[in-house]
Amino acid sequence: MTSLATTYLGLKLKNPLVVSSSSLTDSPEKLQRLQEAGAGAVVLKSVFEEQLELEAMKIDKSLNAGEGVSAEATGMFADIPFEMGPGEYLKLIEKSKRAVNIPVIASVNCVRGGKWSSFARKISEAGADALELNLYALQTDPEKGAAAVEKEYLDAVAEVRAATRLPLAVKLSPFFSSIPNMVAQLAKRGANAAVLFNRFYQPNLDIFAMKTVSRLHLSHPDDALLPLRWIGLLHGRVPKLELAATSGIHDGQTALKMILAGAQVAMVCSAIFRNKEQQLTQMLAEMEAWMRAKEYRTIDEVRGLLSQKSNPEPQAFERSQYIKMLVGFD
């Protein structure tokens, strides 16, 4: 008998497939459908730091009067019709916990710490099982160095950790000079897991209308290779920190690859947008069939078997693989 049951952030999951934060997870009704299809846990759609700042400063009608509010909040974000404010978000957590019996992880999309960090306590009081911080800011100031950027992120994690005892995951971009060091520093600030990696939505140009256009692009299977590599490199190197894989996970085989590399869970989003909730059911069937064929009893037996630490070809994760591929390419 095979079992996909595992844990993530100290929570018991019936399997390692977690639905990522998105519009797929913005209502209790949607969460129920995901649970029925087999989701092991869900990350709720994010509430944004800018929303929390705006409410805390009471500047909905006079944004420019808010000293210390970010440029994003006082400019472009003032015109965005957010579907859900902080109060509604807390109600979403409460309703979601009543609607499903799988872990419900709240999500805050943020740039820095500050006054909004106290909202983490309200998230805990509303009943969330854990919290995911989605850290992202586009750095455009040529005078701001990498150390300052990293400090801003790490300070935000430390402030949230000080505000709540909820299990804490941090979702990162791949654009750090030293990903291993950044992940290790997150652990020192109290993070329990690192989610690798964020995907960004790039603006395009319409050369006929002469304007900037934005469009949502779903992930593709090849996008999984980046988190796969870094999870394989990091597995077992940062004590007491779990790794979650996200981006490009479209089938059960790719989810298994992430677990083999060392991921605690595999996060799914674009595959569900393309194929609806039943994609989760299909992925779980693929994973169980593979485990039976390989005679593994539990998914935890599989974790990290092909990480760099355990791989018979550890050099495949590093520069030698790059040289070998380019030299041999005809």
Briefly characterize the structure.
The protein has 330 residues and is of the alpha/beta class. The chain contains twelve helices and 13 strands.
Low-confidence regions: 65-69
Helix content: 25-40%
* Name of the CATH superfamily: Aldolase class I
End-to-end separation in angstroms reads 47 Å
Strand order of the largest sheet: 3-4-6-7-8-9-12-13
Question: What's the total count of β strands?
Answer: 13
**What can be said about the biggest beta sheet?**
8 strands, parallel, barrel
Summarize the structure in words.
By secondary structure, the protein is an alpha/beta fold. It has a single domain (6-328), classed as TIM Barrel, CATH 3.20.20.70. It has 12 helices and 13 strands. The protein has helices at 28-37, 49-57, 71-74, 86-99, 119-125, 146-163, 179-188, 225-234, 252-261, 270-275, 278-294, 319-328, and strands at 6-8, 11-13, 17-19, 41-43, 47-48, 104-110, 130-135, 168-172, 193-196, 204-206, 211-213, 242-246, 265-268. An 8-stranded parallel barrel has the order 3-4-6-7-8-9-12-13, surrounded by 7 helices. Strands 1-2 form a two-stranded antiparallel sheet. Helix 1 runs parallel beside helix 4 (86-99), helix 8 runs parallel beside helix 9 and helix 9 (252-261) packs across helix 11 (278-294). It starts with 5 loop residues before the first strand and ends with a helix.
